[in-house]
Amino acid sequence: MRAFLLSVVILLVIALGAGFVLNSQFETSAGRAYSTDNVRLP
Amino acid sequence: MSSLRALRVWLPHIFSGLWLLVCAALVSIALTSAGLAQSSVRPPEGAVNGDAGPVGGAVPGDALGTTSDSETWRAVRQGVAGTVSIPDRNAATLVQSDGENWRLLRNGPMFDYLGLAMIGTLLLLALFFAFRGRIRVEHGLSGVRIKRFSTIERTAHWLMALSFIILAISGLNISFGRELILPLMGKDAFGPMAGFLKQTHNYVAFAFMLGLAVAFVMWIVHNVPNRQDLIWIAKGGGMFSKGVHPPARKFNAGQKIIFWLVVICGLSVSLSGWALLFPFEHAYFTDTFVALSAIGIDIPAWLGLPEPPYTPIQEQQFNSVWHAIMAVFMICVILAHIYIGTIGMEGAYDAMGSGDVDLNWAREHHSLWVEQIEKAEARSSNDVKPQPAE
C-alpha cells in the first residue's frame, strides 16, 4: 500500500510539473505562430 | 383636348428619360477621366497588363515562373511547397495528398482493427478463464511469506501501471470517444472532459517514461533469457494443465516476454508520443527506414509507403498511426498481464501488493529463485559463527 501511495504522489508531482513546464516554456501562442515581422515582396 | 391630355401624361416620362440620359453621360465622362488619369502613371517594369491573358500557354510577364496556371496548380496539388514568412513553415504546403490517405486510414480501418484487437483479447482471456479457471496454489498456502519485491521495485511498477492506465483511458477517448462516449454524455459534457483528458495524456506521459526507465534498470538483470526459459515455454508455463510447474528464476519466461514487450513497445510509444508532443522536430521514420534499408529491409516497399525522406507533416502522420498501434498492442499485452496477476492466479497479486508471497506459491512458479534465496540464507547463517566467550 505504501508503494502504491508513493507512486500516486510521484505521478501527481511529475504530471503537474510537466504541465507547468510545457505550458510556460514550450507552448507557442497562435498569435506568435501565425504572425511575422517580415514582409514578402512579389 | 385629347392631345393636351396625352402631353400631360407623357411629359413626366419624357423628362425622366432625359434626366437619366444626362446622368449616364456624366458618369461616363467621370469614368473616362479617371481612366485617363490612371493611364498617365508609368507602370513598373515587368508589370502585367490586366487585359492580357495567357498566350499559347505562356503566362504574360512570367509572373508565375511557369508556363501556365494549370502547371502551377498541378504542382500545388502534388504537394509542392512554396514560401511563407510566418514561423509555421508547414503552411507553405497547401495540399498534402498523403494527409488524405492518413485520414482515411485513421478514421476507417485502423481504429476498426485496433478496437477488434482489444475486444478479441478480452474474449480470449474470458475463454481461457472459462477453460482453465483460477490457477490455484496446488499445495495450498503455507502461511510462510518470503520477500519478492522491494518498496522501490513496487513503486516503479505502480508508477508505470497507474500512468499507463491513465494514458490508455485518455488515449482511447481521443481515438474512440467521439463515436462511443459523445452520444452517451452529449457535447456539453464531452468537450471539457475530452480536453481535460488530452492535457492529462500529455502530462502523465512523463511519469510513465520515468517508471519505465526505473523498471528497466532494476529488472534487466533478472530478464536476460536463459535455457530454462525454453523449457518453460515448451511446457506452456504450466498454464494449460494442472500439476505442471516448470522451473524458473525470479522472472519466468512469460514475465520476461512481458518485460521486454513493455520495454521495447514502451520506448517506441514514448518516442512517437514525444514526437507528437514536440511536432516537426524529429524524423524518426526517415531515419529508421533509411537505417533498415541499409541492411536490406525495405519497409516502405513492403507496406506500399512512399520512399523516405519524409516531410515533417508526413512524419507526424506516421507517428500518429504508429503511436496508436503500439499503444493498443500494449493495452492487449497489459490486459493479459493484469488478468494473470489478479483473478487468473491465486497468490500472484501479493507480489506487487504487499511485496511478500507465499512460500508454496513461490516454489511452484519460481522454484529456482526460491532455491537461490534459501542457499543465500543458509550461507549467511553459516557465516555468523558463535564466538567463544573470553
Question: In words, what does this structure look like?
Answer:
The complex is a heterodimer of chains A (42) and B (390). With 42 residues, chain A is mainly alpha-helical. The longest helix of chain A is centred in the middle third of the chain and has 25 residues, at 2-26. Chain A is built from 2 helices and no strands. Chain A is rod-shaped. The termini of chain A are far apart. In chain A, 69% of the residues lie in helices and 0% in strands. The model of chain A has no long low-confidence stretch (mean pLDDT 85). Chain B has 390 residues and is mostly helical. Among the domains of chain B are: 149-222; 224-375, Fumarate Reductase Cytochrome B subunit (Up-down Bundle), CATH 1.20.950. In chain B, 66% of the residues lie in helices and 2% in strands. Chain B has 14 helices and 2 strands; from the N terminus they run αααβαααααααααβαα. Chain B has helices spanning 2-39, 69-77, 97-132, 151-180, 182-185, 187-219, 227-234, 253-277, 284-294, 299-303, 312-341, 350-353, 359-365, 367-383; strands at residues 145-147, 356-358. Chain B has a two-stranded antiparallel ribbon with strand order 1-2. The radius of gyration of chain B is 37 Å and the shape is elongated. Chain B starts with a helix and ends in a 7-residue tail after the last helix. Classes of the chains: A mainly alpha (42), B mainly alpha (390). The A-B interface holds A 1-4, 6-8, 10-11, 14-19, 22, 26, 28, 32-36, 38-40, 42 and B 63, 83, 85-88, 151, 154-159, 161-163, 166, 199-200, 202-207, 210-211, 277-278, 353-355.
